[in-house]
Specification:
This protein is an alpha+beta fold. It has six helices and six strands, in the order ααβββαβαααββ. The strands form three sheets. It has a two-stranded antiparallel ribbon with strand order 1-2. Strand 1 and strand 2 form a beta hairpin. The chain is flat, with a radius of gyration of 38 Å.
Length: 281
């Protein structure tokens, strides 16, 4: 169907008015679009949030909060009996920790009554418990491998056999890393969330120069040599199951190839279904 264009003639003043009105509406639409994009960015875009915690008060928090004029909790009379104010936390010491017992006794010359001079007899014990934290022990383990040779073969000028004492291979060849040191570094980073640069500072405070680059190399090499075979073995076991339980967790990975830092990455956890034991009557 042929479209026929129609020309409409309007006065110049009306044309100028419509032109100005169109320009004003165009500016409003652009302004609203900018506001919409800004709102979308604030809602879904990456942002850098500042902590509400005052970093300047990091080291003197106890001094700023403490009040030497504040007394200890007093007893409150309720229904003809006394009780302390209820605590909001349930701190307790576990029963499976090793216990170091220190007994405090009087000297032999002090076991006489200060009034009559007679000998004192034992009445009871008063026990007070404390939570003691021992920092990690750092030491150097030196492996000395003894080497033996045959004296008789040396006299006869035959080939002299060299026998070496058996010793376990190092966890990383050519490195002074130990399994305990690598496990500690991995636990601090992946369990406790302590970055390697902070661990480097902690080692330096103990007088040990251990760079974050060396720790990174240890983590990567130990993962490739020792953890990947375990992972592959567990994967084969999981793939042989009929039913698996899975859980996903989103996280942010920096410098991931082909993805922006703001994009989501997924970590999957799998476990096989536990077989239920049938109860026999």
């Amino acid at each position: 169907m042929l479209k026929v264009e129609t020309t409409v003639t309007i006065p110049t003043t009306e044309y100028e008015s419509l032109k100005a009105e169109n320009a004003e509406l165009t500016k409003k639409v652009e302004w609203f679009m900018d506001q919409f994009k800004l709102a979308q960015h604030r809602r879904f875009g990456a942002s850098s949030e500042k902590s509400a915690y005052d970093q300047s008060n990091l080291f003197n928090e106890a001094e700023s909060v403490a009040d030497i004029h504040t007394c200890e909790p007093e007893l409150t009379e309720i229904a003809r009996h006394f009780r302390k104010r209820k605590r909001l936390v349930n701190d307790r010491l576990p029963n499976n920790l090793p216990i170091e017992t220190i007994e405090h006794d009087l000297a032999s010359e002090d076991k006489n009554c200060p009034e009559c001079g007679g000998g004192l007899h034992f009445v009871s014990r008063e026990t007070r418990r404390e939570l003691v934290v021992v920092p990690p022990q750092v030491k150097i383990r030196e492996h000395i491998r003894k080497v033996y040779a045959c004296r008789d073969c040396e006299k006869d000028e035959y080939g002299v056999p060299i026998i070496k004492a058996p010793v376990n291979e190092p966890v990383i060849k050519g490195s002074f890393a130990s399994p305990e040191a690598i496990a500690h570094i991995m636990c601090q980073k992946f369990v406790m969330g302590v970055p390697l640069y902070r661990q480097e500072q902690d080692w330096k405070r103990q007088g040990i120069e251990l760079s974050r680059q060396t720790m990174s190399n240890w983590i990567i090499k130990a993962t490739e040599d020792w953890l990947e075979p375990i992972y592959n073995g567990l994967r084969e076991i999981l793939l042989a199951q009929d039913t698996l339980h899975a859980d996903e967790t989103t996280l942010q990975v920096l410098r991931e190839p082909g993805k922006e830092p703001q994009s989501k990455s997924y970590m999957w956890l799998y476990r096989k279904r536990q077989k239920q034991k049938l109860k026999t009557p």
